[in-house]
């Protein structure tokens, strides 16, 4: 349910200045913000909430057209440390229509105060981004990560799991003069086909990312989509995705994700899905195998399919493992750090159009802290995994987001 009202908004500022000020309006009063750019889209969008308390929700969002409009930010494990968030859309700004903002009834009632605070904001470039209260996560050395991979392979050999996706965090100092909005801009330019996001919220911190993976989407034609994205190799100069060759290990790793998605449809007793793939797709300097799934919602008697699938899908074996619970137990026991919002999911729901939802897996991302960034990457392990290669794959995946940490 969008229910937003359009109002003209301060036309004598440039669009980037208007964006910076709207973000400042939220951050200076301790409120959350989400800024995102959809794959292939030209303009980014911004969501601000003024009722912060109602943003901390227990469940994944409902995706029906009648559900609240806002931005979901969900952790890998839902816990008190990393609360699931749904930012209600009190204020929506589309950078493609910079002359107006859209406001909820709550924000409309407070418009004079918001306008006044907006114009009283100092002209500062520094923004008070939210910082997570959690300690910085443990980071694994190459030896430690390779030991984790070896433990994963041993668990597969022992028949505890068939696939598990191990991951690690890396701490990198922020370059002098680093600015999150400029970094967001750069991510948009570098990765036109990614879902690019910058989310900052109390109790959550600030996260930047450019993910290639759709978790659950309902488009404006009422088509539900999800994808199996797994299997990775570097995109080398002169290489065409369509002619890429894949190792058995990648095909197997991918197939387990695709089978898992089919099983989710089966659990709901839905047979009428369309499956295309796998084909090779590029994501930054990487290639992945992707199978796309689609369901025409008008043609099936499942009005809550999006919501139901979202709840079954997360976390998929692209970031968790197969079977799900033993794989998650393995990660809890062996991974040795807190993934927080890495490999969780995020995206707009009913915002701005009611009935349209776009949720992505939070990959190729980093968490911003005052002096440093925490970067995250993982790799799917199968019985054929070699520890040194899996380390190398995390290094490659880290490059997507570390590209913005230059001087
Ligand atoms: C886990 C990540 O990526 C996932 C794992 C992949 C793999 O193991 O091949 C490929 C794409 C993603 O589904 C990551 O980017 O950190």
Automatic annotation (TrEMBL):
InterPro entries: ADC_synthase, Chorismate_C
Record-annotated Chorismate-utilising enzyme C-terminal domain positions: 142-397
SUPFAM superfamilies hit by this protein: ADC synthase
Pfam families: Chorismate_bind
PANTHER family linked to this entry: ISOCHORISMATE SYNTHASE ENTC
Official protein name in the record: Isochorismate synthase
Natural source organism: Hymenobacter gelipurpurascens
């Amino acid at each position: 349910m969008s229910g937003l009202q359009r109002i003209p908004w301060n036309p004598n500022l440039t669009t980037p200045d208007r964006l910076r000020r709207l973000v400042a309006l939220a951050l200076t009063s301790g409120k959350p913000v989400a800024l995102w750019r959809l794959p292939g889209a030209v303009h980014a969008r911004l969501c601000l909430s003024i009722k912060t308390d109602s943003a901390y929700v227990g469940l994944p969002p409902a995706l029906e057209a009648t559900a609240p409009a806002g931005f979901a930010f969900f952790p890998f494990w839902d816990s008190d440390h990393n609360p699931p968030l749904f930012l209600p859309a009190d204020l929506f700004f589309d950078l493609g229509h910079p002359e107006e903002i859209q406001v909820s009834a709550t924000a409309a009632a407070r418009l004079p105060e918001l306008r006044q605070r907006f114009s009283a904001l100092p002209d500062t470039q520094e923004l008070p981004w939210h910082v997570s209260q959690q300690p910085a996560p443990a980071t694994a050395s190459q030896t430690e990560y390779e030991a984790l991979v070896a433990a994963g392979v041993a668990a597969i050999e022992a028949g505890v799991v068939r696939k598990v996706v191990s991951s690690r965090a890396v701490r990198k100092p922020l370059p002098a003069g680093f600015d999150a909005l400029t970094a967001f801009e750069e991510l948009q330019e570098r990765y036109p086909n990614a879902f690019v996001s910058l989310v900052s919220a109390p109790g959550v911190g600030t996260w930047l990312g450019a993910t290639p993976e759709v978790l659950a989407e309902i488009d404006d034609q009422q088509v539900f989509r999800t994808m199996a994205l797994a299997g990775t190799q570097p995109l080398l100069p002169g290489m065409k995705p369509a002619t890429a060759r894949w190792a058995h290990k990648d095909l197997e790793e991918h197939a387990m994700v695709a089978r898992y998605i089919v099983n989710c449809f089966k659990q709901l007793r839905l047979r009428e899905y369309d499956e295309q793939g796998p084909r090779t797709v590029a994501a930054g300097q990487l290639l992945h195998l992707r199978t796309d799934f689609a369901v025409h919602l008008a043609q099936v008697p499942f009005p809550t399919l999006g919501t139901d699938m979202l709840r079954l899908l997360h976390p998929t074996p692209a970031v968790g493992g197969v079977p799900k619970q033993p794989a998650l137990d393995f990660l809890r026991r062996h991974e040795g750090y807190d993934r927080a919002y890495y490999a969780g999911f995020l995206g707009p729901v009913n915002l701005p159009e009611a009935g349209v939802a776009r949720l992505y897996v939070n990959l190729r991302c980093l968490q911003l802290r005052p002096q440093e960034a925490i970067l995250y990457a993982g790799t799917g392990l199968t019985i054929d995994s070699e520890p040194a290669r899996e380390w190398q794959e995390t290094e490659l995946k880290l490059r997507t987001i570390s590209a913005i940490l230059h001087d």
